[in-house]
Amino acid sequence: MVSAAHTAQARSAYCFCVLLTVLSAVCVVQALLNIFPEPDEMKLAPLFLMMALYGYILCKASAVIGDGSEMLMLIFGPGIVGGLVVPLLGAIPDCAIILISGMGEGSRAEIQNQLAVGVGTLVGSTIMLLTIPWGLGVLLGRRKYSKSRNAAASRQVSGFQLFGQCVTMTEEIPPTSRIM
Q1: DSSP string covering 130-180, please?
Q2: What is the pTM for the complete model shown?
Q3: d(CA 13, CA 25)
Q4: Which of 140, 138, 170, 165 is nearest to 153 (CA)?
Q5: Among residues 81, 99, 121, which one ends one of the domains?
Q6: Structural domain harbouring 73
Q7: CA nearest neighbour of 144 among 136, 156, 134, 132
Q8: Which of 63, 83, 92, 168 is the most buried (most CB within 10 A)?
């Protein structure tokens, strides 16, 4: 059963999403019609005002996305939401940025260069988001190597050594890594 607080929160989240959709449409129209001034043509005060406004919109949008994912988790459970919905919702803005970067004016070579930059940025951020948690997991999960067990000992190490430390995988990791 959904409480009245969740209903009011969902209603405000919906209204904010409608507002973001309208603002996104305005941004697309701005990019296509070029009706707003370029940042290098603006004075300092309006530039800071626009930066503060966009920062506020991004802050509110991230809070709404977080609240919405919590509500989805209550309804569908963590398997569907965490494994499917949240990654898709995270990939859609990246794909939209790449799509819009290819809709600009210029020669074919310039547009291809803009798309290459967008795809490179997406790939780089994905690699970073996969590498940082893996590296932290190895760094924080390392244990002293036990020769008798041919695995990690039960006690955690303090300090860094190049040899004599290891991380042991559970049995579920190799089959899961083959799926990826």
Answers
A1: HHHHHHHHHHHH-EEEETTTTEEEEEEP-S--SSSEE-PPPTTHHHHHHH-
A2: 0.46
A3: 18
A4: 165
A5: 81
A6: 1-81
A7: 156
A8: 168
In this prediction, residue 35 has a pLDDT band, given cuts at 50, 70 and 90, of low
Q: What burial class does residue 81 get, using C-beta atoms within 10 Å of its C-beta: 0-12 exposed, 13-18 middle, 19+ buried?
A: buried
In this prediction, residue 30 carries a pLDDT of 58
- Residue 55 CA neighbour count, 13 Å, CB half: 6
What confidence score (pLDDT) does residue 16 get? 64
Between CA 21 and CA 24 the distance in angstroms is: 5
Q: Report residue 60: phi and psi, to 5°.
A: -65, -40
Let me know: does 21 contact 93? Beta carbons within 8 Å.
Answer: no
Which of the listed residues 34, 62, 81 is the one where a domain comes to its end? 81
Split into its structural domains, the chain has a count of 2
Within-domain flag for 112: no
Describe the chain by its helix, strand, coil percentages, rounded to 5.
75, 5, 20
pLDDT in tens, 62-104: 888 778 777 877 887 777 777 777 777 777 877 777 777 777 7
